[in-house]
Amino acid sequence: MSSFAKPDKDDEEGGDEGADTVVGGESEEPTGADYVPIVKLNKLAEVITHEEDEDIAYCQRVKLNEFGETLLNKGTGIKEWKEKGIGELKILKHKTSGKNRILMRQEKTLKICANFYCDHRIPELKALNGSDKAWVVSSPADFSDATTPTSRIFSVRFNAPEQASEFKAKWDVAQSEMKAIFEAKAKDPSVDDAAEALAKVAIADKTEPAGGDADKTEPAGGGAAPEP
Q1: CA–CA separation, 86 vs 145, rounded Å?
Q2: 149 or 165: whose pLDDT is higher?
Q3: Taking residues 187-201, what's their average pLDDT?
Q4: 56 and 102 in contact (C-beta within 8 Å)?
Q5: For the chain, what are the domain ranges?
Q6: Residues of the chain with pLDDT > 90: what percent?
Q7: Which of 15, 70, 101, 228 is the most buried (most CB within 10 A)?
Q8: Cα within 13 Å of Cα(79), Cβ side
Q9: pLDDT at residue 11 above 90?
């Protein structure tokens, strides 16, 4: 008879009785063996982004372009818009100093493509060719590619006009806060943090006599961005 014959009914009913046994009639018992992995993974090193001491005041996914010479036009003086990357554009506020800066990394490589302070002396944002979804912003001191500051002109393109409007509102606030900090530092160099700086500015505004001469010196870093 074939060894694959259907088992008897009695064998099926009594099949559970030997469930705890193995071949040879011996019961399974824990061996207590300790298996050591062949490859031991070391603890990953902590990645420092230099954003640990900052709060995110604004964050939005954008496309960033820079107005400058391309590789083909290098040294010719011919400038045009070239893509810097797509990623999250952030306005970061330092927890202690209160200073605001723009930081953007490419979403795939995480390479920094924009890194500069929201300096109050930077000209007002300008719409790119009249678009309601893109702004032109210039920075006299961008630190994205090197340790030395470089003057750059960027265009920031958003997916919707509402996003562009929100960014402008946040940018204006960041510039106002930076202006207050710099004014307080100019009046009192001993000021160390933003809260103290803003408090001193508020007190100075209340005590300054009406009709005083305003600061008529033209701020550094002026000049409108060229039309692309």
Answers
A1: 16
A2: 165
A3: 59
A4: no
A5: 54-187
A6: 48
A7: 101
A8: 12
A9: no
Instruction: Tell me the three state secondary structure of residue 136.
Output: strand
How far, in Å, CA of 135 to CA of 102, rounded?
14
Spatial distance between the Cα atoms of 148 and 225, rounded to a whole number of angstroms? 21
Cβ 28 vs Cβ 20: under 8 Å: yes
What sign has the CA pseudo-torsion 154, 81, 221, 218?
Answer: negative
How many angstroms separate the CA atoms of 144 and 147, rounded? 8
Contact assessment for residue 61 and residue 54, using Cβ atoms and an 8 Å cutoff: no
Q: Topology of 54-187 in CATH? A: PH-domain like (2.30.29)
Q: Report angle CA 63, 173, 121 to the nearest 5 degrees.
A: 80
Average pLDDT over residues 149-177: 96
Cβ burial of 172 (10 Å; 0-12, 13-18, 19+) is middle
- The pLDDT tens digits of the residues spanning 128-159 come to 999 999 999 999 999 998 778 899 999 999 99
- For residues 93 and 51, what is the distance between their CA atoms, to the nearest angstrom? 9
For residue 210, the model assigns a pLDDT of: 36
- DSSP conformation class of 145: S
State the DSSP code for 129: G
